[in-house]
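A quick aside before the break. I want you to see a complete sequence-to-structure record at least once, exactly as it would be stored in a machine-readable document. Don't worry about memorizing anything.
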Amino acid sequence: MPATAETIVGVFAHVDTTVRALEELRAKGYHDLTVYTPVPVHEIEEVLERDRPVSRVRLFTLIGGLTGIVSAFLLTIWTSLVWGLVTGGKYFQFGPGGIVGSSLPPFVIIAFELMVLFGGIATVIGMVMLGRLPRFRPSASFDPRFTNDRFGIAVHCAPGRSPSVREILRTAGAEEVRA
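That is the input. The structure line, written in tokens, reads:
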């Protein structure tokens, strides 16, 4: 949200009026929205998720998984070379044609396990970083009624567009519109 943005909050009593306001705001080009609901509502989620780009958390998972595979193979091959471990009835050694006389399939198990471990850890790190967590200050647009029985839409817009946002929220059925 830019530093010069203004936040307009609309308070709604019903799901259908909230969805109508969201549809109208999205149609008019307002995409920087925060929605507060007392319960999960699939209709609201559908409106918000429409045309949203795919999350970048999956890139964290991919990079973590690939790092796990590479580190597992490096670890298992290094330990076999340094300590002369017999794996699958064969010593691991390098020859003129590459890897000679080794059995790599047992290393795949370790690679799979570290892929899952590193991928899971990277996913959690990605969710925390991209979700900007933890949030130490509550949102200025939050109202305690949003945890009980009311729905809220906070629209972040340029100050010149706030009259248009207020009108959209009022005509959609907002009980209260405030800055």
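Two observations worth writing down. The chain has a mean pLDDT of 90. The two ends are 15 Å apart (CA to CA). We'll return to this after the break.
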